């Protein structure tokens, strides 16, 4: 198959969809890989590394779209890319269709085959191509929290782990899923006194088994949260209710009860946030202060560490890319139910229920097009 990797053109997107190692895997199997010049730069991969791996470099994005049967990307195509996509072309990338009617309509019009990372789903309902970014954001939340606890950043002037003779900082993590677990590991590793709150007893039993002794669990409810926020130094919001806006678990009135310089990191901000006073921020201006409490709520945290994020993402996406290249999308999806769930828009038809419902469009059963 002829595979194309364009350079991401969305603002501040430094990830790339294929590493030189991934290119080498595809080339080894007899596929042609075309990479747009400097596509890997933001993640620290040079054009020479791709060429050594057997890929061919193309100077412009038009060349890459013009040549490829399958485009592998990171972010959804944006407007200048719409007209470059042609009928029958396979696009394998994050789409998040339900949040953009313009994108959905554009992909319906050009009759491409859109396989979305975010809806590839395993039988246990987990989303294997979203997990790596949650892992990155979770680990980063503890790191950013530690930074903003420093006095120069406006925090309480505390070291997460304390020192001998001085108590460590107290970290509260609300939501013990992927993000919360990774945040807890990092904070606990630095010696903090960590509590994870969740509503799932089953999850907390598991966390209690695997976490070190400086991590405790506690049932998440308003009473407990109200009490806990008063003496915690770093509070990380990491809840998810699939398909719904995150609930406001920390309300405005609770800020007044926190210690000045407390740091709130609302990782769930991409789902609306679980702290009433947060709003999405960017890496250029990640924080703001309300009632002496620092709020960090960057909606695309993995964007700050594109090299780690690219490697994490491509570890998860490459096996499917190989399958798609070897078998073609129809056969690959017929053989793999999880991958089939990634099909959203195909040949001018919406084949993913959530997308059809979001915009009142006709829904076609995915099996009818395979
Ligand atoms: N800002 C970013 O850059 C970024 C990056 C990746 C993920 N995220 C977001 O982080 C959030 C968490 O993602 P995840 O992958 O860890 O999800 P997950 O499904 O693995 O975990 C969510 C956890 O929240 C728990 N939960 C639900 N309601 C709760 C409540 N009321 N109180 C306490 N816990 C509750 C669930 O039981 C579950 O354990 C999501 O909103 C996700 O979109 C943000």
From TrEMBL:
Residues 4-137 form the Alanine dehydrogenase/pyridine nucleotide transhydrogenase N-terminal domain. GO terms for biological process: L-alanine catabolic process. It is an enzyme of class 1 (oxidoreductase). The lineage of its organism: Bacteria, Pseudomonadati, Bacteroidota, Bacteroidia, Marinilabiliales. The keyword tRNA processing does not apply. It comes from the Bacteria. GO terms for cellular component: plasma membrane. Its EC number is 1.4.1.1. NCBIfam families: alaDH (TIGR00518). InterPro entries: Ala_DH, Ala_DH/PNT_CS2, AlaDH/PNT_CS1, AlaDH/PNT_N, AlaDH/PNT_NAD(H)-bd, NAD(P)-bd_dom_sf. One of its GO terms (molecular function) is alanine dehydrogenase activity. It comes from Prolixibacter bellariivorans. Belongs to the AlaDH/PNT family. Keywords: NAD, Nucleotide-binding, Oxidoreductase. It catalyses: L-alanine + NAD(+) + H2O = pyruvate + NH4(+) + NADH + H(+). SUPFAM superfamilies: Formate/glycerate dehydrogenase catalytic domain-like (SSF52283), NAD(P)-binding Rossmann-fold domains (SSF51735). Pfam families: AlaDh_PNT_C, AlaDh_PNT_N. The active site is at 96 (proton donor/acceptor), 270 (proton donor/acceptor). NAD(+) binds at residues 134, 198, 203, 220, 239-240, 267-270, 298-301. This is Alanine dehydrogenase. CDD domains: L-AlaDH (cd05305). Residues 149-297 form the Alanine dehydrogenase/pyridine nucleotide transhydrogenase NAD(H)-binding domain. Substrate binds at residues 15, 75. The keyword Lyase does not apply.
